[in-house]
Amino acid sequence: MSKKYYPAAVKQPIKQLQMIDITKQFPGVLANDHVNLEVRAGEILALLGENGAGKSTLMKQLYGLYQPDSGRILINGKECHFSSPTDVIHAGIGMIHQHFMLVSNLTVRENVALGLKSSRQPFLDLNIVEKKMMEICDTYNLKLNPRAYIWQLSVGEQQRVEIVKTLYRGADLLILDEPTAVLTPQEVDEFFQILRKMAQEKHLIIFISHKLHEVLAISDRVTILRDGRSVGQRENKNLTKAELAQMMVGRPVVLQYERAAPSVGDVKLKIEDVWVRNDWGEDQVKGVSLEIRSGEILGLAGVSGNGQRELAEALAGLRKCSKGRIIIDSIEMTKASPYERILAGQSYIPEERNKEGIIREFDIMENFILEDHDKIPYSKHWILNFSNIAAATQKAVDDFSVKTPTLSTKVKNLSGGNVQKLILARELNRNPKILIAAQPTRGVDIGATEYIHRRLLKQRSEGTATLLISEDLDEIRALSDRIAVIFEGRIIGIVDGPTATAEKLGLMMAGVQEEEQK
Amino acid sequence: MNNLFSAATIFGIIGMAIRLAMPYLYAGLGELFNQTAGCFNLGVEGIMMMGAFSAFYVVYQTGNLFLGIAAAAVIGLFMGLIMSLISVTFKAAQGISGIGLTMFGVGLSSLLFKTLLQGTVQSVAGFAPLKIPVLGDIPFIGETFFQNNLMVYLAYCLIPVCSVVLYKTTLGLKIRSVGQNPQAADTLGVSVIKIRYLCVCIGGVLAGIAGATFSIANINMFQEKMTNGTGYIAVALVYFSGWKPKGVLFGALLFSFVNALQLRMQVLGINIPSDVAMMLPYILTIITLVFVQGRDAPAALSVPYERSEN
């Protein structure tokens, strides 16, 4: 085993990285087709593309997890071959993965020390690690408690641990895979300051994203990938969102929707002083009352972990309410099972679509009929009718433009956007009276997001009462007629959707009441 | 003499518990290494039987006790390698492959017993009690704690050693990370495969030695199926322990104390059916397992590791 802690002085600093003509073929997919990319010290390069455009594949080749079929990787003009993460770390490249690579029941400093030679082998030297780590934290203004356990930290703090871990290993080049996907607006601002500081210190940064406003806000240059090819390299000067979106999707994309004034009807879902406990038995939702009428979208905004998940699960019948009442169509259904709620005309799009929304090992048809498989026309006398199932699924797949090779493709082989469209197709197929949509477009690419938004608006005009739970303020503002803000399990205020500003909502999400803001 | 609460009886029970805990400690600590690295090895019982037989046979042939322990360790290592090949390299379901390994070990040890020893139970001179000077002379306490054989002392010494390895060394950090989040460990250049092989093999060696303690450091004879479920109890003990070496110690002592108590109650002729008495330790295990919180369980326990393709 080679020595694994490389003081910056020993290693040649990276001044320039080039990836030239990278091609990578997977069975059935050309993931990268002669892709070019270049980044220089002190520069933030945004790598923009939809899900499945080949961003992650490209970066995994740089990180040594895949080998390119052809093409070259040059560091400071010299060709490099990486066969494992160890080589890459040695060369001064660090990657911060979208799903954090942290061991949750180890402390921050243990995570930093993991995999490194200690100065007093075979024993750990955590105090020395802590000292060096805190020097890095001071340089980049990262606030961290080295002795806290990872599970005690917020998502933003965990991301800081990832950054420290990477810098501690002497990385010059940082690859950040969708780093803002899990952060709140405030955390994103802080995170961007850290990135700028790192660029000032002559680091090279590759920022992978599909969020246009972030790319415009942070990057010096943008490389755009579409269907595995690099379709554009631009300096970030006079770029517009519309221009970027068009390059990324390959067609003009509408980012603002025209909405008719709501034609609201009766109250379809009434939530009265509902209290819900979390997995540890603590009160997480503390007396929420809301009313949603047919033909309106009520947005529920809030920073992740303020009770949204527990509330959504309680409404779906997956979690008990410890107090309060849930009334569907003027019938009390507080204790109703998920099945009874489905029969009552409620649809639910769960936050964790891969775990709760679908069965990954099942094919598209099976997933499509999960809720209604025991009803005509899908089955009769307990026997499934496959020709009816296939016909209905085909129609839904066409209507919702789910991209799939066949109807019997396993759902685990679909991209996130297509999975979400399939779930939407299933839930809206029953023309629900009530729709609970939790984070319906999280991690979904811009094309599919646009589509999902249009569908939610269409459902609104057909009279569905929708509760839209989202951490994406742009989404909430684009779709909601009214916006309720949740903070620490309580509704801190309800404001009119079309006129609410991001600043006002941001403050409310941080717990500042509307009146206090004046 | 019939009094369960006399000092002699109480110290007798404690002393017996201390000796009975020995195989649980070796096998339990071995399984702790397995599980901390994310591997669930239900083959402990089979490895123990093979350890028990090989140690006995070597001592029977050579009279050398240390060669016997070494033989058990080597056989344990070998069976650990088989287990890691199946569950780490070929990524087979660990529960099933462990049960298979147990059936293999129990069966093979019986077969060897019938072919090499013609199936006759014989005894050897096992590890003799080693009286520690001065301390061993204290009345009651000396007899209970300081007049045991070498393998008993070693079992208790192994607890702090395991604690240090798991919590104070770079290797221990790697082991714990591999059991909790192998993806994270992999991205940091830790070889998940190597660490898991190492831990399953450590588990195998310790299980082999645990088996040897039956045949050459306690009853000093070999019988078919003589470990009698100890290997399974050791697996349960690791859950009971909350994946901590100290917990293994506590669990092993509690379990063997109940066991010693029921044995002594039978000897004293206390009027409860012996079958009920023999069930006591097992009932205790089930009850404790129900109440053990799984919060510290290695998150990747029994999940084979694959680099994801997405």
From TrEMBL, chain A:
GO cellular component entries? plasma membrane
Q: Domain named ABC transporter: which ranges? A: 17-252, 269-513
For this chain, one GO molecular function annotation is: ATP hydrolysis activity
What InterPro entries does this protein map onto?
A: AAA+_ATPase (IPR003593), ABC_carbohydrate_import_ATPase (IPR050107), ABC_transporter-like_ATP-bd (IPR003439), ABC_transporter-like_CS (IPR017871), P-loop_NTPase (IPR027417)
Q: How does it sit in the membrane?
A: Peripheral membrane protein
What PROSITE patterns does this protein map onto? ABC_TRANSPORTER_1, ABC_TRANSPORTER_2
Query: Where the protein is mainly located, per its record?
Result: membrane
> Per the record's keyword annotation, is Chloroplast included, yes or no?
no
Q: Which SUPFAM superfamilies did the record assign?
A: P-loop containing nucleoside triphosphate hydrolases
Keywords on record: ATP-binding, Cell membrane, Membrane, Nucleotide-binding, Repeat, Translocase, Transport
- Superkingdom, natural source: Bacteria
Q: Gene3D superfamilies per the record?
A: P-loop containing nucleotide triphosphate hydrolases
Protein's recorded name: Nucleoside ABC transporter ATP-binding protein
- Look up and give the organism this protein is from: Flexilinea flocculi
TrEMBL record, chain B:
List UniProt keywords, sorted A-Z: Cell membrane, Membrane, Transmembrane, Transmembrane helix
Q: Name one GO molecular function term.
A: transmembrane transporter activity
- Primary location class: membrane
Report the locations given in the UniProt record: Cell membrane
Tell me the organism: Flexilinea flocculi
Q: Which residues form a coiled coil?
A: none
Return the protein name: ABC-type uncharacterized transport system, permease component
Q: Which Pfam families match?
A: BPD_transp_2 (PF02653)
Q: How does it sit in the membrane?
A: Multi-pass membrane protein
Q: What InterPro entries does the annotation carry? A: ABC_transp_permease
Its GO CC terms? plasma membrane
Task: Name the residues that span the membrane.
Answer: 6-27, 39-60, 66-88, 95-113, 150-167, 197-217, 276-294
